[in-house]
Amino acid sequence: MASGDRGPKRYVEAIRDSGLTIYSPIKIGDPVLWIPAPELEAILDKKLKGLSLFGLKLRTRSKVAKENVCRALGYPVPDSFKKTQPRFPGQMFDTYVQKSNNLQVWNEELSSTRRYVLIRVDEREIVSRVKVVTGDALAPLDTTGTLTQKYQATCIPSQSSTELIANLDTDLLRPFTVKNIHNLKAVTPISHPSLGQILSIASVFERLAKLVGETFKDTGSDRNRGAALHALVCKALGYTTYQDDGQFPDIRHQLLEVKLQTSPTIDLGLVRPASADALDVPMIGGKQIRHCDTRYAIFYGSANGKVVKISNFILTTGEAFFSRFPQFKGKVLNKKLQIPLPADFFLT
Q1: Please, what sign has the CA dihedral across residues 212, 187, 90, 337?
Q2: Which of 122, 135, 152, 184 is the 20 to 30 A CA-CA neighbour of 145?
Q3: DSSP state letter for 278
């Protein structure tokens, strides 16, 4: 089954034909049965939008939502939902019905490999939007300090304005990389990575090193600064558009995470770069890409309130990340996490 056949619908058909339940294990990246986060969001947003949960008690509302999720994905509805963690272990996700922008996660830490299906209902309690995000995408949204301490590292610029820490990609990824891509018009920065479309780390370095010395407007917020930098990176890599869906890594098509540093502390969220955990992308050449295969582009710069100027660029694999950036230590466990979602969270 080709990866582009019939869009997300192909996953629903395959699951329905398989006879699997929501508790049946599926390998992350399985090209037939594992639904990547973007496609999972597309399916659920289309199928659940307009569903009325009006007048239902909280537990009933949650159950009805989960039943409709099962139907939307092609799974049989179980007689009762087991208290597993997560509630949908086969596809590694939990569901949350959100009438407000305050997400509450009880008795658990966020997980970088888990997906969180956030079902927004309007004032009439009708589903208006479904968003699917990973735990790592949620972590930066916490402004209350209630989250478990996220991974952090230290970035101290060197005298060299550009550094390539890993000259080669990881052993797993290297066979799937190329030196040049001549046409990126048919794909976007958030397309899934595929054979013949992944630049080698050396080629990425050659293209992005040219951004040192560039300036862009300082909009004041880290989020907007990051978006401006991502747009520059996309253009330098050869994409005709800039897109960012908030998932990890930022430029999924190149397995590239982009970070702008105006201070020494690198916030890594819930993802430890050297982790061998599977990444939520379809398999490539029969192999599952891991977090440590991701490439990290670290841009160091200064902001004066008017412009941000890039002074340093460092590129590494996740596998070699901590050979250049020392990791902070420490961890704190909270029993309840309250994450205030941005006002425009369900609008994008």
Answers
A1: positive
A2: 122
A3: B
